[in-house]
Amino acid sequence: MKIKNYLLQIAILSMITSCVNSNYRYSDLESTEFLNQITKHAKASITDITEVKKQPTDLFGIITRYPLPKNKLEEYHKNHGTIVNTDDDISDFATYTLKSYELINEHNEKLNFVDDGRAIYLEEYGLWEYDKILYQNLGISFKLNGKFSTLRGYINMEFEMPHGEKKEIRIPVNISINDRISE
Q1: What is the DSSP string of 112-163?
Q2: Torsion on CA atoms 158, 115, 88, 69, rounded to nearest 10
Q3: Strand pairing class (133-148; 123-130)
Q4: Which residues partner with 153 through β-bridges?
């Protein structure tokens, strides 16, 4: 009976996994270009709440971006500056894995990530124009086991797409509660 339940669980998991990526319509080249863009622009940042409050915090994020694809750019212009957010944008399929990190606050205390059950996916933020190119902003929010006014160190992480394309990056961390969130 246990083997039957085990095999049933494996079959269900296989079906769920195959359904998750069944609507992935992006080519390997598009996936690679997406990974190149998000790793090129990835950086550590304080949160918008921290920018306003200027108080020691245990929250920060990694922010990044990629240029809006042609079809979304056309939709944006056609609809006077708006697009419909769907669940099949290329960014919806990207996942990440933390490989290693070292984060030290102003008291020389080593801080660690708190696993609070957050998804390993990129969050979509607003659209923004950089150098006359419209980008989709993305981010990852992190919680630490202690507070900081300044945080320095690094994060090594790997981004992955459904067909196995991967890109590892080392993101330097040198942030302060007095930073401004802007490009």
Answers
A1: -B------SBPEEEEEEEETTEEEEEEEEEEEEEEEESEEEEEEEEEEE-TT
A2: -50
A3: antiparallel
A4: 103, 173
Query: The tokens of 183 are what?
Result: 């490009």
> Which of 109-118, 131-140, 174-183 is the most confident on average?
131-140
> What is the CA 128 to chain-centroid distance, rounded?
16
Sign of CA dihedral 44, 50, 55, 58: negative
**pLDDT given for residue 18 in this prediction:** 44
Tens-place pLDDT, residues 52-110? 999 999 999 999 999 999 999 999 999 988 898 888 999 999 999 999 999 999 999 99
Query: How many Å is the maximal CA-CA distance in the chain?
Result: 62
- pLDDT tens profile 14-31: 444 444 546 899 999 999
Residue with tokens 């994020």: 61
173: nearest Cα among 97, 110, 127: 110
Strands 150-160 and 95-105: antiparallel
Predicted confidence (pLDDT) at residue 129 exceeds the cutoff of 80:
yes
Secondary structure (3-state) at 54: coil
Written as six digits, the tokens of 129 are 């124009």
